Amino acid sequence: MEKAPFIKTKLPGPKSIEFIEYSEKYEPRSMSEQVPIVWKRAFGAEIEDVDGNLFIDFTSGVLVTNIGHCHPKYVEEMKKQAEELYNCYDFVTPWRTLLAKKLVEITPDNLGKAFILTTGSETIEAAIKLARRYKSGYEIISFYGAFHGRTYGGMSVGGKMNVKKGFGPTIPGTIHVSFPYCYRCAYDKTFPDCEYWCFQALDWAVETQSTGEIAAMITEPYQGGAGSIIPPPGYLKKLENWCKEHNVLFILDEVQSSFGRTGYMFALERENLRPNLLCLGKGIGSGVPLSALVGETEIMNVLEPGSMSSTYGGNPLSARAGIVAIDIIEKENLVQNSAKVGEHMLNRFKEIQKKCKILGDVRGQGLVLGLEIVSDKKTKEPSSALTKKIINECYQKGLVLIAPIGFYGNVIRIAPPLVISQELADKGVDILEDVLMKIDK
Length: 441
Ligand SMILES: Cc1ncc(COP(=O)(O)O)c(C=O)c1O
Fold this sequence. Notes:
The chain is α/β, with parallel strands linked by helices. Helix content is 37%, strand content 16%. It folds into 2 domains: 162 residues, Aspartate Aminotransferase, domain 1 (Alpha-Beta Complex); 257 residues, 3-Layer(aba) Sandwich (Aspartate Aminotransferase, domain 2), CATH 3.40.640.10. The protein has 14 helices and 15 strands. Pyridoxal-5'-phosphate binds next to helix 5.
C-alpha cells in the first residue's frame, strides 16, 4: 500500500542537514544541484529520507530504476548472486553471455552482437572508436543540445557547453547540427509546413565543415538533457535514410530512452529504426552499473582480441541484474504501464496547461515528460528561476523531481519508475498542479 507523501519534519530534517553538510565539506560541488532530500531507502516509486519522510519519486534516480526501487524479485536474485561471484574480468560467465543473447534477441534483427559494459558514457566511447575503426573515417555528426555523457568522447559529441566548459580541446572531427526543437525552431519554421527544413541545414553543415571523412552520426531518439525534446514524426527515419545515402553509420543513443521508458521497449520501435550501433544503459540494470553496445556483427567483428574491454563490464552481478530486470519488465507488462500511465499524465498536464500561464509546452512519450516553464506564453521567455521554485515547492509537499534541464534550465523532467500506479502518479500531478497554479497567480 503506497503511503507517500508523508512529511513529518521540517524539510530538510535534522539528519538530512547533517549529511548535506558532510557532502558540502567532503565532496566536490561538480554534481547537479538537487533538492536537499537525503535518500535512505526506496520501494517501487516511493522514497524514504533519513528523517523518515516519505516522498513520491518522479525521478527513477535519473531514469534508471525502471522496474521500481528494490523490486523484491530483483533483490532476491542480487542476494543469491552476492553469495556466488562478483568479478572475473573478461572470463566468460553464464550471466554475461545470456544477457548478450537476450539483447540480440530483443533488438532489431540487423544487430548481432552485444558488448556488455558499465556506464552509458562507456558505450558512447566504444561506439565512436568502433565507427572510426570500421569506416576508416573520423568525423562524427551530432546535434545541438545532445547529451551523450561526460567522458571525452561523450562530451565532444555533446551539444551543450555546461558539460564541456573549461575542459577543451574536445576530440577533433565533431560536426554539430541543429536538432528539431519544434517549440523553439532554430529556423523559425513550423512543422509540417517546414518540410523537414533541418535536412537542408544538415546538408549545408556537411558541405561546409566536413573533410569528407565522416564515420558516423549519433543521436538520441528524443533529447533528454536538452529538455525532453521529441523530434517530429518521421524525422528519425529520415535521418537513418540520410545516413544510408551518405554511407555513414547511424548510432542511436538509447542509454536513457530504452527498457520501457517511452512506452516501447526501445524508442526505436516507434519508427521501426534499424541503427548500425545501439547504445543502452540506465534502465538495463535498473539500479546497478550496467550498459551495452549492441551492433551489427560485421562492425563488431573489426575488434581483435584485447582491443576493447572493461574491468567491470559484464560482471556477473550486473549481468544477472540485467537479465532479471528485463524479465520483470516483460512479465509485469511495464512497457504497457509506461504507455498507459504516461498518456494519462500527459493528458492531465495538457489540461493544466490550458489554465496555467507559465506552462509553455508539455511533451512526453510514455513515462518521460517535459514541462517547459516560461514567464510569458506569447514570447516563450524561458524562466529558470520559476522552474527551480516549482521543483523546490514540490519537494516541500513530498514530490521529488530532478533539477531543471533544458537549453535554458527551464524544463521540469518527469520520469517515475515504470511500476508507478495511476493513483500515485495522480497524487504527484496534483502536487505539481497546486504548485503551478499558486506560482501562476
Ligand atoms: C542519452 C544519454 N547518453 C549517455 C549518457 C551517459 O550515461 P552515464 O552517465 O551512465 O555514463 C546519459 C546519461 O544521462 C544519457 O542520458
